[in-house]
Structures are given as C-alpha cells and as structure tokens.
Design a protein that fits this description.
single chain, 6-stranded mixed beta sheet, Glutamine Phosphoribosylpyrophosphate, subunit 1, domain 1, alpha+beta, 31% helix, globular
C-alpha cells in the first residue's frame, strides 16, 4: 500500500507520470465515405490544432503506452504552447482578463472519468483532470476547489496564465466593445494601434493567432479547444478535451469541455467522441454521448457526428438570436469520433478540418459538413 505521504512526494514535480496513475502500461451534405484504418494498429484523432498531438500520441501507443497516457501527452504539447490561444497557457481570458481553463478525461478500460472547470493558474488542466479521476471518488472539481486540489497534488500554481499576446487581444476587445465606455479606441488616443497596444502591454509582440478565428473587433467571439481520442491495437479507448473556453466569457462560465457526455464521452465497448465549438449547443444536446450512442446503434463515426450536428441545427431553429439570416446556426460545432474497430471520422456544421494519425502517418483532413459554404 502507498501512504498518502509517499504519494504526495511522488506527485511533487508537476505530477508527471503520477498524474497518469504511475502504473500505466508503457443544405445537407451527402454522407461521406467511412474513414477506416487500413492496417491493424492504433488510431488517434483530434481537432485540427492537434497534428503534433496525434503524432506524439500514436508514437506512444506504438511504444506500448496506455491510451490515456497517449492522449494526455499529446494535448500537453498544445496546452504548453503559448502561441495556441485556445488552450492552456496563453489561452484567451474571460472579460476580467483572467484565464480560466476546463478539461475532462475518460479512460475506457477502467471506466474512469475526471474533470476540472474554471481552473486558474495551472498550465495543464488535463493532468489535473486525470488526478481527479485517479485519486478521488469525484468526477468534477471547479474553481477554487479545483485549484486547491491541484496545489495539494503538487502542481505549480502560477499567478497568471495570461501571455502578452493574449493580453493584447483582450485589451483590443475592451477598447472596441462600446463607444460609450471609458476605454479609448486607438484612433482616439492619437497613437496608431501598434503604438497604443505597445504602450499598454510593454514588450508585447504581435502574433498571428492559430485559432483561425476573426478578431472580436470584427464581430466574432473567438473560441477554441483541443479534443483528442485514441484507440489502440487491442481496441481500448481513451479521450481528453481541454480548453480556455469562449474568449471574454462571464467569469465562471463553463462550456462543454469538462462535461462528461457533452465535450467528451468514451465507452470502451463502442468508441470515443469529443467536440469543439459552441459549448452551450453541445451541452444542450449531450453531444459526444449522442455520437457514441449512434455508433453503438451501427452508425459510422462520420454519420454519427453528422446526425448529432443536425440535432443542434434543429434546436437552433427555436432561438432566433443564434441563427443567421438564412436560418442556419450562426456558429460552428465540430465532432470527432473513433470506434473500437479503428474506424474514425469528423464532421462540423460548416466546413472544417481535423487531425488524425494512423500507422500510415499523421495528417490534417477535411471534415464532413452539414452545411456547405
């Protein structure tokens, strides 16, 4: 038996392997063709910002690693990358300039699940979610309680996760939300925009966001996430979803990413699915759970994703504020899925992309789409 003291000592350096358990083995479009792994072996699928994640996760599986170990190590690459403003360190903050992170994990073989929401100060919320799963009888910890738990587990707690680049985006949003508040637009200061922002954010350098979203000043609220799911050669599955959530959100807002059955669902008998995009729409339709249940009933991963998205579109019909002039949803949602046989697929309301790795290699592919254009 391991004593509590022994565990806490082993957890000290950012939790590392201990967080992973310490004992893990090393108009409607036409239905597209099923993507099937052409050779016996593992498959890893992720959102489009996860190319390096799926490549690393596949290598971990091929080396004999557990599926949970693989997907966590994969998304850690993105969580720790300050240039990705949708996840982890460098994520875009809430409307008070505070970065709050959400994550959930599920381990197929053990039927385990863990999650954290509105977590501040920890670069890798996915690992805290694993610790919740491994070392507590709970599934979800939030806010100050989640941070306190992370501190007890030995995670480093930073004063802020806000990078100069993310702060720059936040300040631009603050200056543009109204012409009747006390925040000045760049042209009102007598300075150009870059000088204006440099004066507010010393040493900030302008970067191109990898999120592929328009700046909020152009009318679009940025959001982004990474979901990553894997199946190994034995048919065992795991998944993780991790995010900084909707930019400029009300403090404490939680989207679908840490909600089991919404932003992530894994059933080791069937398959795994996860989502990115407008979290509120996914929560209302129990999105990832729906995808897995449709696969249980015989749908391919792609067809299951498409049907779950059609349900979101139908729900949006009753909410005019969420519709475009043509009646279609004024937002996007993406689903990613893989089944126990290694068949995989992804779909979105509007054209999008996803990353996948098989023994043949890693690449970014086009997703199926409910609506074209």
């Amino acid at each position: 038996m391991t004593t509590r003291r022994d565990f806490l000592v082993s957890a000290g350096a950012g939790l590392g392997a201990a967080a992973l358990g310490g004992t893990l083995p090393s108009a409607l479009a036409g239905a597209p063709a099923i993507h099937t792994n052409p050779a016996a072996g593992p498959v890893v699928i992720a959102s489009a910002n996860g190319l390096e994640a799926v490549r690393h996760a596949l290598a971990t599986l091929q080396a004999g690693g557990d599926t949970l170990e693989a997907v966590i190590e994969g998304v850690n690459i993105v969580e720790l990358d300050p240039a990705d403003m949708s996840v982890g360190y460098g994520g875009l903050p809430n409307d008070e300039g505070v970065v709050q992170l959400d994550s959930s994990v599920m381990h197929g073989p053990s039927r385990g699940a863990g999650a954290v929401a509105a977590l501040e100060g920890v670069k890798t919320p996915s690992r805290v979610a694993v610790a919740v799963m491994r070392y507590t009888d709970h599934v979800l910890l939030v806010g100050e309680g989640a941070q306190r738990f992370a501190r007890q587990m030995g995670f480093e707690i930073l004063d802020t996760l806000l990078t100069p680049e993310a702060r720059e985006r936040w300040l631009r949003w603050k200056a543009s939300i109204s012409d009747r508040d006390d925040w000045l637009e760049p042209d009102e200061t007598g300075l150009g925009e870059s000088e204006f922002l440099r004066e507010l954010v010393p040493d900030a350098r302008r970067v191109e966001s990898r999120m592929g979203m328009l700046d909020s000043a152009d009318g679009v609220r940025p959001w982004g996430t990474i979901n990553c799911c894997a199946v190994d050669a034995n048919g065992d599955l795991s998944g993780v979803t991790t995010t900084s959530g909707l930019a400029w959100k009300i403090p404490g807002r939680v989207g679908d990413s840490p909600i089991i059955g919404a932003g992530l669902y894994v059933d080791n008998d069937v398959g795994a699915a996860g989502s990115t995009g407008r979290g509120e729409a996914v929560i209302k339709t129990c999105g990832s759970h729906t995808v897995v249940e449709l696969m249980r009933q015989g749908s391919s991963p792609t067809d299951a994703c498409l049907e779950a998205l059609r349900r979101i579109a139908r729900w949006t019909e009753a909410q005019p504020r969420l519709r475009r002039d043509d009646g279609r949803p004024a937002f996007n949602v993406n689903y990613y899925a893989v089944n126990k046989r290694g068949e995989f697929g992804a779909a979105a309301l509007y054209p999008s992309r996803f990353a996948v790795a098989t023994p043949s290699g890693a690449e970014v592919r086009d997703s199926a789409a409910v609506f074209q254009g």
